[in-house]
Amino acid sequence: MRNYAPQLVKAYELANSISNPIFDPSILPRILEEERRLAYSYDNEKSNQAIILYNEETNKILKLPYYMRFKAEYVKAVKHKIWGEIYPQVARYHNFLFASLDGSTARYYSQADAHRKVQKHWNSLLTRVRRRYPWVKIIKVVEWQENGLGYHIHVLFCGVRFIPIKWIRETWDKLEPNPHSVDLDNKFKTFEDPKRALGYLMKYVTKTLRQGDEIPMSLVINWALGLRTLAFSRLFSRFSSSKTNSNEKSRGVWVFLGIMPWDLAVSSSDVEILGYFGYG
């Protein structure tokens, strides 16, 4: 992981290290404590940084807040993605099915191993779903448990009210044969109303996002492994919601100059910022 922050490099190494309590009950608590410490250290370091871009054609400087998943702006972006871009497409449906798929914590030797094995079986199930229900759209959330190895997948199927649980188990039992590892929910009032159905999924999304000063363990592990908070099926059309009336921002090529303290960036002129990076 060249050119990555040292906190992220270390967290990635920890997420790939042996942590199953079967080997040593004291290993996993120590790893979780260190991962959390690294996450807060990374957050403190990056929260007051600015990304500086320079446009040689217009001779202008662009100052952008350092954007990362621990910032409040990330939470707002996720919610905007859900309600601003995804919901208008979900609103076309009136049949929904919610599924929670659980994986055993005893089967993995590390967090990275847990992700690989659960994702392998999810991909297999997803392929079968696409073949049998090609019109269905899917929204998936990954939730790690506080114990650091428990791994849940929460899925909203849009366009279908019923999928046989035995059919799902044909795939999932290969990972986790526990009879409670697959839970299907299609409450009548909730899952014929698009807004309520998406809102039901959002309570799991919220659990994986930062709330105030607290960084949830699920968010820490997703950060350490570089995993997305949300995943959407390819049937959802993709479009950019970002709009700008500024022609100046679209002119020429913006070159990355570097990163500097945000407070210093907003109080400095373009000439002073160029001087900070050794230009001019």
UniProtKB/TrEMBL annotation:
<protein>
    <recommendedName>
        <fullName>Replication-associated protein ORF2/G2P domain-containing protein</fullName>
    </recommendedName>
</protein>
<dbReference type="Pfam" id="PF23343">
    <property type="entry name" value="REP_ORF2-G2P"/>
</dbReference>
<dbReference type="InterPro" id="IPR056906">
    <property type="entry name" value="ORF2/G2P_dom"/>
</dbReference>
<feature type="domain" description="Replication-associated protein ORF2/G2P">
    <location>
        <begin position="112"/>
        <end position="208"/>
    </location>
</feature>
